Amino acid sequence: MRYKKSKIESQNNGTGWLTTFNDMITLLMVFFVLLFTMGSLDVKRVKHFQNALQSAIGVLKQGSHVNIGIMQELEWNDEDIKRARELAQQEVQKKQAQYYELLKEQFGNMAKLTRNNIRLTLEDELLFPAAGAALTPSGKMFLDKVIKMLKRTNMYVRIEGHTDNLPISTVNFPSNWELSTTRAVNVVKYMIKKGIDPARLSAAGYGAVKPVAQNSTASGRARNRRVEIVLSPTL
Fold first, then answer.
1. CA atoms within 13 A on the CB side of 171
2. How many domains would you assign to the chain?
3. 132 and 175 share a domain?
4. Running DSSP on this structure, what letter comes out for residue 69?
């Protein structure tokens, strides 16, 4: 009996490696089939469709991941691309509305939602001294609150400077163009200093050419002297 048992064990030990070998061959076959399948995809069209899906996703950092596994099940035609862009735009509008509600809760009527962006309008006296472009201490404190909110999104941020139509002529600011532009740039610089990615930021100065109220009254001119923080979805 001992002889028979040892003989059986010897036979099992001699052929047991076949199981491992078969597993290895199976894995290699699956691996090469996968490589072949990936190599047969139209990379350009896949990338195009992926960009269409992701073109407007990411208004908020949370939940910005896009699952592109469904791409392998679709035919790559113009209708698919168009539909993907429509879905992406719907997602953008949804996330913009969510983020707008957060800003409105924090800043009230300063925040405004439009079709393409969110605008946060700050009167100049909130940030700067009269006819000046250096941020005041209270202005920096207020911007810190704005920056805290901006860090919750990856949207592009454009800082726009605006003035009233009263002419200005100083050594530093020969006209309202220089004043509005310098104010916008100084806000951008402060945001960069506080950790906002420079790639997300831009600055523009419009002088008095885009009023939101009549310049014939003091209250109207006060409304026109402003800085607007414009938030747009990433592309």
1. 0
2. 2
3. yes
4. G
Nearest-CA neighbor of 160 among 132, 119, 197?
119
Q: Check whether residue 172 and residue 202 sit in a common domain.
A: yes
Condensed to tens digits (0 to 9), the pLDDT of residues 17-29 reads 555 655 566 666 6
Residue 15, burial from CB neighbour count under 10 angstroms (0-12, 13-18, 19+): exposed
| Residue 125 structure tokens | 């006296």
Give pLDDT tens digits for 122-136.
999 999 999 999 999
Burial of 48 (0-12, 13-18, 19+ CB in 10 A): middle
Both 102 and 66 in one domain: the answer is no
In a shared domain, residues 168 and 227 = yes
Taking each helix axis from N to C end, the angle separating 176-193 and 137-150, rounded to the nearest 10 degrees, works out to: 60
Is the Cβ–Cβ distance between 80 and 50 less than 8 Å? no
* Model pLDDT, residue 92: 76
Say if residue 29 is in the same domain as residue 115: no
Provide the residue range defining the domain that includes 189.
91-232
Same domain, 108 and 191: yes
Sequence-distant contacts of 35-42: CB under 8 A, at least 24 apart = 41/72, 42/76
How many CB atoms lie under 10 A from the CB of residue 99?
A: 21
Residue 222 and residue 115 share a domain: yes
